[in-house]
Amino acid sequence: MSLPPDYHMHTPLCRHASGEPADYARRAVELGFTEIGFSDHSPMPRDDFDEWRMFNSQLDEYVEKVRRAQREFPQLTIRLAMEVDYLPGHEDWIRDLAARHPWDYFIGSVHYVSETWAIDDPSKLSEWKHRDAFEVWSVYFDWLTRAAESGLFDIIGHADLPKKFGHRPTKDCTPLYERFLTAAKKHNCAIELNTAGLRKDCKEIYPNRQILELAFAKGVPITFGSDAHKPEEVGMSFAEAIQLARSVGYKECWQLSKRQRQSIIF
């Protein structure tokens, strides 16, 4: 049985990853993958928006880097994609990005809960001292729900990212999860099992088991992603992610090409 595709990996263009796409592809082949996808952080309308994404002028360079890896590793299916930040009011920008190249999929992620605070940014960690965790999670899941409702994304990334540094609400978040997952199902959007959480302070796959159980009950599809920022992270902890998915009841995940989806057994 082949490994499910690793659909979440980055390149040096995001300014916080190392290794060229060919290096990631080489590692994937070594591990026995038959399919991967690059989904680096998309540019923003302003290049000075933050320091952890490619510049707008580098988008074509990014595409060529992935194309080069495709040529060098013909035995490996390599998808061209992006991880795109969702912020309310940025929808036209996302549509513009979508029209520039023949993408295989877009991962929609919420990192910001305001125009200036990315909740997973280590340099902004002190912000948490001034915030109520449930309020942050409420804004985050509201924006995540709006991302799913927008129809702009094929996959929603790391669906409980606010737990990264260990900040978890004491209040019940089930209504937040339910609303988001209902939107994901209605708009035919998958959620990813992102193993990077195991490498962060939270020491847990994104999303947590409760969210995944609710997702399975609603029929929300899944994908898998290592969120690799260096070649040795490709496919990292996939055994745990597969075990988690199967224990909840999943037997299939999505395979994506040219923004078309089909289910495959893993």
Task: Reconstruct the topology from this structure.
Elements: H1 21-31, E1 35-41, H2 59-72, E2 77-85, H3 91-98, E3 105-109, H4 133-149, E4 155-156, H5 174-186, E5 190-194, H6 209-218, E6 222-225, H7 238-248, E7 252-257, E8 260-265
Parallel strand pairs: 1-2, 2-3, 3-4, 4-5, 5-6
Antiparallel strand pairs: 7-8
Q: Characteristics of this structure?
A:
single chain, 6-stranded parallel beta sheet, 17% strand, 266 residues, TIM Barrel, two-stranded antiparallel ribbon, alpha/beta
Compact overview of the structure:
The chain has helices at 21-31, 59-72, 91-98, 133-149, 174-186, 209-218, 238-248, and strands at residues 35-41, 77-85, 105-109, 155-156, 190-194, 222-225, 252-257, 260-265.
How large is the count of helical segments?
7
Taking the sheet with the most strands, its summary is: 6 strands, parallel
Low-confidence stretches: none
Question: Strand percentage, roughly?
Answer: 15-25%
Q: End-to-end span in angstroms?
A: 7 Å
In CATH, the homologous superfamily goes by the name Metal-dependent hydrolases
CATH class: Alpha Beta
How are the strands of the largest sheet arranged?
1-2-3-4-5-6
Number of strands: 8
H/E topology pattern: HEHEHEHEHEHEHEE
Helix-and-strand structural type? alpha/beta
Explain how this protein is built:
The protein has 266 residues and is of the alpha/beta class. It has one domain: Metal-dependent hydrolases (TIM Barrel). The chain has seven helices and eight strands; from the N terminus they run H-E-H-E-H-E-H-E-H-E-H-E-H-E-E. The chain has a six-stranded parallel beta sheet. Strands 7-8 form a two-stranded antiparallel ribbon. Helix 3 links the parallel strand 2 and strand 3. The chain is globular and about 50 Å long.
